[in-house]
Specification:
CATH architecture of the largest domain: 3-Layer(aba) Sandwich
CATH class of the largest domain: Alpha Beta
Number of helices: 14
Bound molecules: ligand BES, manganese (II) ion, zinc ion
Strand content: 15-25%
Distance between the termini: 30 Å
Number of strands: 20
Radius of gyration: 24 Å
Structural class: alpha/beta
């Protein structure tokens, strides 16, 4: 899908569909007023007759309206003027693109960045691009007869007045974010028998091939052994697939500038290992590599933007399976940091691969490290599917991520990382155990990671509830690529 911004009058635009908003109670948006006049009050008539309520996210499609150059007019309900919020704005944009996808239109011109959805133009454009991309995403490449791809190919963000300065830059950045999200979703939705650690490594190498600014290296198990990654390697012991430690180095500015490191959990299938998970919905544990996929998506997005900063992506990737050689509850391993870990539950494997990857991240002398992981079921219980969990050893970093999340509408919610929780990880036989009991499971998981991140500014994102949807809508979301990309953009703009 392609996007552009254009100033013009809505009745004159030659487009397959022109989209304007109508408020609840009959008030027309500025662009709708122009169409109403040009069509001799056709819109007002529809409202008067009750065909159009203006209820938020309702739509009405009109064909060949006289006086209007576009082939179709899509009227979109905006709700009561002044009562819109982030959620209604996004709902309105999603409904708009759903309605457009139901038509054969190849292009559309949207008047949405003016006065309509109740947010500033940049916010609306960001959400509109992501809603458009989402509406065109298909996850059926493995069906023998995939559905027809979306016919909607070009979106024009039309404005009555001169578009605000900087809007084009926002648009280009958001298109890059949408492409990154698509990569993240595609990888997440792929089954575990295709999306293996080797497959993720190949994708990371392909990114380096496509972008000169990215350099990828892949470490094998023997290399990890040399580095002393006994914790990471303990997780892959039960699998036939070789584990990979993937590093992507994006250089967007002077080499001397310290990088941000993004560390993504890449468990390409989590059966629980010897602490086997129950069978119901176990298929969804193919999504246990969504942290890794979000790192790849974000790296691609910033490379496409040419963002002026340095970022290292680090992905520990392996499977967690039971077998005769698998790690057993009670086994004790030595991490790269030298700290020993008693593995009481082999299903708490994410922290075991992340702790070594986080120690490894220190080698890059990072300014800031953010890890992204589908780490705990407890996070889904605590926060549901709306926000990702955020824990950090630096409050200013947490604030920056909270703000970026609001800006990108890919929100996070902070949980405490108090030392008071640390004793729950005490072990009689090793420096720590890998579980802290049922209470505060997301916090104790982060407390475990905190023992490996003392040397740098660090934040942990638990995306267990936000990386994918279950049930009828089962599929990856592409989150938290918008959040991560926005955070990195903000770092370059001195915000
Ligand atoms: N990948 C899971 C976490 C998960 C579970 C994410 C369900 C999304 C939905 C993780 O490896 C895991 O199994 N965590 C355990 C930890 C427990 C054993 C301390 C969990 O949450 O049950
Ligand atoms: Mn697990
Ligand atoms: Zn897991």
């Amino acid at each position: 899908m392609e996007f552009s911004i254009k100033q013009g009058s809505p009745e004159k635009l030659h487009s397959a569909c022109v989209v304007v908003g109508v408020f609840e109670g009959g008030k027309l948006s500025a662009a709708a007023q122009v169409l109403d006049k040009a069509s001799r009050h056709h819109l007002s008539d529809l409202i008067a007759r009750g065909d159009l309520s203006g209820k938020a996210a309702s739509t009405l499609l009109l064909h060949k309206v006289s006086g209007i150059a576009a082939e179709r007019v899509l009227l979109v309900g905006l709700g009561k003027a002044g009562e819109q919020n982030n959620k209604t704005s996004v709902d309105i944009l999603r409904a708009t693109f759903k309605a457009l996808q139901d038509t054969p239109a190849k292009d559309a011109a949207l008047y949405c960045a003016d006065d309509t959805v109740g947010k500033d133009a940049a916010w609306v454009i960001r959400q509109a691009v992501l809603a458009a991309a989402e509406s065109g995403y298909r996850a059926d490449s493995l069906k023998s007869k995939p559905a027809k791809p979306s016919t909607l190919k070009h979106i024009t963000f039309a404005t009555l007045d001169k578009p605000a300065a900087g809007l084009k830059a926002t648009l280009d950045q958001t298109v890059a974010i949408a492409h990154g999200m698509e990569l993240t979703r595609t990888l997440g939705d792929l089954p575990g028998n295709i999306c293996t650690p080797t497959y993720l490594a190949a994708k990371a190498l392909a990114l380096a091939k496509a972008h000169k600014s990215i350099k990828t290296t892949v470490l094998e198990e023997k290399d990890m052994q040399k580095l002393g990654m006994g914790s990471f390697l303990s997780v892959t012991r039960g699998s036939e697939q070789p584990a990979k430690l993937i590093t992507l180095e994006y250089q967007g500015t002077d080499k001397k500038q310290k990088p941000v490191a993004l560390v993504g959990k890449g468990i390409t299938f989590d059966s629980g290992g010897i602490s086997l998970k129950p069978g119901a919905e176990m298929d969804e544990m193919k999504y246990d590599m969504c942290g890794a996929a979000s790192v790849l998506g974000t790296m691609q997005a910033i490379a496409e933007m040419g963002l002026k900063l340095n970022v290292v992506g680090i992905i520990p990737a392996c499977e967690n399976l039971p077998s005769g050689s698998a790690t057993k509850p009670g086994d004790i391993v030595t991490s790269m940091s030298g700290q020993t870990i008693e593995i009481l539950n082999t299903d708490a494997e994410g922290r075991l691969i992340l702790c070594d990857a986080l120690t490894y991240a220190g080698k890059f002398k990072p300014d800031t490290v953010i890890d992204i992981a589908t780490l705990t079921g407890a996070c889904v219980i605590a926060l549901g599917h709306v926000v990702s969990g955020l824990l950090s050893n630096q409050d200013d970093l947490a604030q920056e991520l909270l703000a970026a999340g609001e800006q990108a509408h890919d929100r996070v919610w902070q949980l405490p990382l108090y030392d008071d929780y640390q004793p729950l990880l005490d072990s009689n036989f090793a420096d720590m155990q890998n579980i802290g009991g049922r209470a505060g499971g997301t916090i104790t998981a982060a407390c475990f990671l905190a023992r490996f991140t003392k040397d740098y500014r660090w934040a942990h994102l638990d995306i267990a509830g936000t990386a994918w949807k279950s049930g009828k809508e089962k599929g990856a979301t592409g989150r938290p690529v918008p959040l991560l990309a926005q955070y990195l953009i903000n770092r370059t703009s001195g915000k």
